[in-house]
Each structure stands twice: as C-alpha cells, then as structure tokens.
Amino acid sequence: MTSPHWLRQLYAYRQTLWIILPPLLLLPIPCALPGTVAACGYCILLMAIYWVSEALPLAVTAFLPVIIFPISGIMDASDVSAAYFKDTTFLFIGGLMIAISVEVSGLHKRIALKVLLIVGPKPHALMFGFMFTTFFLSMWISNTATTAMMLPIIEAVFNEMKSTDQITSGKPQKEELPDDVTSDGKEVAMTSFHSDAFKVGYMTSSLQGDNGEYDDIKTPTSQISKREDIESQDGAEELSKDEMKRLEKLERFVKGITISVPYSASIGGTVTLTGTGPNLVLAGQFETLFPDADVSLSFGNWIAYNVAGASVLLFLAYVWLTFYYLGIDFRSCCGKKGERNESERKVKSIIEREYAKLGDIKWGESTVAVVFIMTVLLWFFREPGFIPGYALIFPVPDYPGDGTVAMLMATLLFVLPGERPEFLRKREVSENEGDDDCDEEKLCRPVDGVLVWKTVQHKFPWDILFLIAGGFALADGSQASGFSEWMGEQLTFLDGIEPWAISLTVTIIVCIFTECSSNAATASLFVPILAELARKVRVHPLYLMIPPVLASSLAFMLPVATPPNAIAFSYGHLKVVDLVKAGWLMNILGIAVISIFINTYGMVFWNLGSFPEWAEYPNSTITT
Asked: What is the Cα gyration radius of the chain?
C-alpha cells in the first residue's frame, strides 16, 4: 500500500523540519521562565539537537551562542566572540598546521612503510605493524588523514600479490585491469592520500593457513566482500571445500586488517592533547570553568598520563582482533625469520619497492621532522610537572602557553624552504664540476616554504575548529548565566553515590552517546555538566571529566561513529555487523582501561584524592 502523498512530501522535507521545529518547540522554556538561566538552557538544548541530528552543519550550529547569548542578555557580543579564540584554539590551529606539513612532505608515508618493513610480512606481524603505525601517526596528525593513508597501503599489498598467487596456483593470469578500474568495471574514487601505487582495484591475496603461513589464493575485491557472487558466476569453476575454507579465512583476514586501522587511529588520538577534538574541548573548557586551578591540562601533562593507558588499550585491541580474525598461532607469531613462503616474500618485496620509490629523505621531510621534534619537546618541557619547565625564563612564566609554541613552529613552516635553496644547489654543482664561475650571472630565486597558505586553506578542518570554539563559548555562557550553578542544584540526588560509580556511569553514557554523534560535540555538551556534578558531589573535577572525554573518542561499533570508521567501511570489506561484533568488546575494554587508570595511576598523577579549593563555586564560602 502506497503512503499518502502528504506523508511522503513531509518525509522529503524532514531535514528542513529538523531545523524549524526544535527552536519552536523549545520556545516555551525562555518564555515561561524568564531569565538568563532559561535562555542558556534553551541554547544548550537547541545546539544538542542540531549537533546530534546534524540538521545544520556542525560548525554552523557552533555559531548559535554568538546569536542567542547577546540577544538574551547573557553575554556581550564582544565577550562571546572572544570566548571562541583561546590558547587552546590556537593550539589546535598550530598543531593541525604542523600535521598538514607532515602530510604534504610525505614524512608520514615514509614512517609507515619503514615500520612495516621492520615488523615483517607474517599475518600477525602485519596486523601489529599497521596498528602500531596508525596509533603513532594519529597522535600527531588527524585520525581521518592517518586512516586514509594506511588503508590504501593495505589494498596495494593485496592488489600487487595477485601475480604471485596466479603463478603459484598454476592458473593462467587474467587480463590486467587499469589501475583506476575495479573488477566490475567501475572507476574507483581516489582520495588525495592515494598514490599511483596505492590504488584500489582488482585484488588477489593470501591468507594464513593451518601451517601458520599464507595459503595462496586469488580472488577479486568483489569476491572478498560478497562470496555469493563467486558461486553464482556463469561458467565459474565450483570451489572445493578447501578453497572455500581458505576463502573464508581470507575474508576474515582482510576484515581484521581493515578494521584494525580505524580502531588504532581512535586510540592513538587520545594520547596527545592535539590528537582529537574532545581532548582540546576539555582543556579549553577546564580553563574557563576553573580559572583558579593549580593544575593545567598542558601537552606534557596530558601525554604523560594518557600514553600508558592508550598503549595498554592498543595491546588489548591487538590481542582481541588477532584472536577474533586470525586465531592464535605461535608458529606464525614466533616463526624464524627465514621461514617464508612465496607470498610472504612478495609482501616484503612490495613494501620494499614502495619504500624505495620514496627515494632518499628529501629536504622538506628533514625540515618537517626537525620542526616536529622541536615542537613536541617544547610542548612537553614547557611545564612537565616533574621538573621545572623552561617557561621560568620568561618575565611572566604563566603567559606563554602551548598555543604559543604551536603557532611559533607553524609560522616557521611558512618561512623555512620546502626544497633545497638554489644557492646551495649552485654551490654543490660548482664544487662537483670544479668550476668556480658556474652560473655566476644567474640569480638565485627563493623557494616556497614547507607550507603555503593555499594548501592549508584546502586541508585545514575548519568545521572542527569552529565546533571546538563553539563549545568554549557555550561553557562561558553557562558560567555567566548561572546555568552551571542551577544544573549543580539539580544533581543533589547523586550525593549519596560513590564517586567511582558516578564516574563509571557517566563514562558508559558518553561512550554510548558518541556512537551516534560527533565526539567533539559530545564532549562540548557533557564537560560543563560534569564540572557542576563534580562540584555538587565534592569530587575532584578531573576525576569525573577525564574518563568521559576519553570515552567520547572510543566509538567502535558503527560506521557513522567516526570518519575513520566510515573510510574503512567504504572499502567494501566490512558490514555494519562486523563493526558491531568487533566493536562491542572494544568499547568494554576501553571503558575498563579508562576506569582502572583514573582510579590508580590518575589518583597519584592528578592528585585526585580530595576536593580542591579552586573548584568551589565563585564567591562561595569554603567549608571544611
């Protein structure tokens, strides 16, 4: 039975209705309850609906405080505008510019291929190599960029192995397809991170067999994702039970390697303050909500605390994914290095060839590597906590922040040459040819910097920048309007619950919530509420704020949960059920690791054993 025309028309305008109806339905709140508290609550609810439904672009929703706060008398327009740009905002800008320079120079690809060469071609080792490389790179560059760079390498390995598989299987080689065409004749959409060697196309591969090595087998990409297509092909040979068994193992191997990349990217992003949006949201809002705090969420403090927990979670993820997709095989894990079959040698030769294509390390890569290392050192030792930082040499040690370091080093990338300067090339040519008069009349021209603004303008994630900045404005408005204190009064029923139970509960809630919404938006909504909850139950704010913020980055179960999940899903190897089956335990492991670390290592590191005086409500009487 066909639905009525008006109902189908209404459904066609559902996106428009999501934009129009929420502000109208919520309008009774500020009308019935005049005052800044109700107006701020109206703004927060409206932004929450828009962020979750994505009826408006995330960045556009983040502009609502600039409109609502001045109109409702919460904050002056100048104050709201200033709230968008804090030290943390410029930490994000500078950090992303440095990350873009790593991508532009190709340094990330050199690091990735070098790690894969070191770990070797065995299945378990390959999975570890991909996971560790993705984990490390996602600390410094965006999770999305890391995933988009690693997945084509996986496809290239399988695609290049087909010639070996066809030879060893004794079957005639099929006609080569163009690099940009798949086995079904469709063109492949390439991302900016795909090189010619990393194109997705007709794919044949190998998988670990019962003897711990790869069993040679050939199959196109469409056969891996849809095995039923093989059985229904006209004129196709009927697969034997052994071939079907190897094909099933191949499917699981490809799924395991593919799914490990976005998982590792999400875990790695939690390690550094610039690794993912929620970390910066917490750092910026913590500074706003607790301006008198004697502890700061600096780059050094954050990485010193989170690197251990993230490493443990990465190890557990590796154990779970290898057990679920590859099985436990000690002969494959611990076999002698020389015991390799033809397919393993082919894998190694592919990686070696791709690494050789990069050539010697280039001037731009060396420059970016030096700037990158200096930036990390300056971030870490500005205020490391366990020793006096170098900030003491400045007239006012508290004035320079992590944003100062980020913008200094990012600015240098626009100044330092991206290629060897011409005057150095002339000197080398002159010395090699023994001609002191070589090209003396030719003028040397300056070369472009490592970064040029057009590149930054194209690659910079402006939407995430405004999303994070909108969260800062929301936190300022919550404080100025009195909404934060009102929210704390509504949470009095939690006074009798143990702090660890509250922390665990909100961590689970955020972990579930972030599966269907942006992680940065989730953090922006929950951080002010958690701050007031900590004040009300008189628990150190970081005890309730850090675990949920970390959990907001651990979205493993749905393709729409994070961009890395969506990219991996788009390759066709995974179904939604695959992410759910692998991701449910990953969420549990993530919550467990976060909770254990905050109640053990975190207690000592952040001194969470008591409620600090700086966390009291402003102008309140401190009770003992």
From this structure: 27
d(CA 537, CA 553): 26
Residue written as token pair 């706003």: 288
Tokens of 528: 């002010």
Q: Label residue 622 exposed, middle or buried (CB < 10 Å: 0-12, 13-18, 19+).
A: exposed
Instruction: Give the DSSP H or E segment for 214.
Output: strand 214-217
Residue 1: the pLDDT is 59
Characterize the bridge pairing of strands 205-208 and 214-217: antiparallel
The letter for the amino acid at 383 is: E
Q: Contact 282/523 with Cβ under 8 angstroms?
A: yes
DSSP H helices in 106-141: 107-119, 123-137
Would you call 446 exposed, middle or buried from its count of C-beta atoms within 10 A (0-12, 13-18, 19+)? exposed
CA gap 297, 287 in Å, rounded: 8
What would the 3-class secondary structure string for 239-275 be? CCHHHHHHHHHHHHHHHHHHHHHHHHHHHHHCCCCCC
Span between the terminal Cα atoms of the chain, in Å: 70
Which of 575, 572, 584 lies closest to 320, judged by CA? 584
pLDDT along the chain (624 residues), means of 10: 78 87 91 87 91 87 93 92 89 89 87 84 84 91 84 70 45 44 38 34 32 35 42 49 69 85 93 89 90 87 92 95 80 52 72 85 91 89 79 86 90 91 63 51 76 92 88 88 82 82 93 86 88 90 94 88 86 84 93 95 91 78 34
- What is the reported pLDDT for 418? 86
- What is the predicted pLDDT for the residue at 343? 64
Quote the CA–CA distance of 498 and 502 in Å, as a whole number.
Answer: 7
The Cα 507–Cα 309 span in angstroms is 15
